[in-house]
Write a structure and sequence with these properties.
This is Oxygen-insensitive NADPH nitroreductase. With 245 residues, the protein is α+β, with helices and mostly antiparallel strands. Helices cover 47% and strands 12% of the residues.
Length: 245
């Protein structure tokens, strides 16, 4: 494999960081690399809030479900889907704009995710560890108020960045045949492949925890599908001006 594929294959989430700051010029280089990601129709429907204020970092750690590494990492970024800037640009250019379309929500969310992954890859290429923080959506209204986000902008997730102070194992992924399907959707072997993967993940958890975690992939999924996960997001997004049509 070439060095880029090798680097991608070694991704881990880092949650313990050295007390060492990332140089500002490096952080800006990571964000510029993020801007080079594919973007639908060149809309670039994202904004990043670099949270520097320690009190705001501590508050975000609480709002995200008590994740202390948000406050402890070198830098914390909140990636926001932003349809305000492109919509207003089109309006100033003379367009009779339509707001609140579900497709606009999808475009902004996808643009933001693509951009963030480029930032992650750029950071990891320089020895910086990252951890995505989906817990930002636990309390999106409070997060939006704290960050002073306007209408048509919403926080998608956060990202911790810093020099790693841990060396976790790479977490296994599903077997390729489970996700790579030829010509049309085929699931005849999915149950078998998932069973194999469950065995792999059980071994991984046993080794990682010294035998203290007796679980697998399917077991870990249960909480996601036995309760309504973040049911507040639908009304929150509508209040933000997204997904009304």
């Amino acid at each position: 494999m070439n060095p880029i594929i090798d680097q991608l294959s070694r991704h881990r989430s880092i949650r313990k960081f050295q007390p060492r700051a990332i140089p500002r010029q490096s952080l800006e280089a990571f964000v510029r690399a993020g801007q080079c990601a594919a973007t639908s129709s060149h809309v670039q429907a994202y904004s990043i809030i670099h949270v520097v204020n320690p009190e705001n970092r501590a508050r975000l750690a609480e709002l995200a479900g008590g994740q202390p590494y948000i406050a402890e990492c070198s830098d914390f970024l909140v990636f926001c889907a932003d349809m305000k800037r492109p919509t207003e640009a089109a309006e100033r250019a003379g367009a009779d704009v339509v707001r609140g379309m579900t497709e606009q929500l999808l475009v902004a969310s996808i643009d933001t995710a693509l951009m963030a992954q480029n930032v992650a890859i750029a950071a990891e290429s320089e020895g910086v560890g990252i951890c995505y923080i989906g817990g930002i959506r636990n309390n999106p209204a409070e997060v939006s108020e704290l960050l002073r986000l306007p209408e048509h902008v919403y926080p998608v997730f956060g990202m911790c960045l810093g020099y790693p102070d841990q060396d976790p194992e790479v977490k296994p992924r599903l077997p390729l045949p489970a996700i790579l399907k030829e010509d049309y959707y085929q699931d005849a072997r999915d149950a078998e492949l998932v069973a194999e993967f469950d065995a792999t993940m059980h071994r991984y958890y046993q080794v990682r925890t010294g035998g203290n975690k007796d679980s697998n992939w399917s077991e870990q999924l249960k909480p996601l599908f036995t309760s309504k996960l973040r049911p507040h997001m639908q009304s929150f997004l509508r209040d933000r001006g997204f997904g009304k049509q």
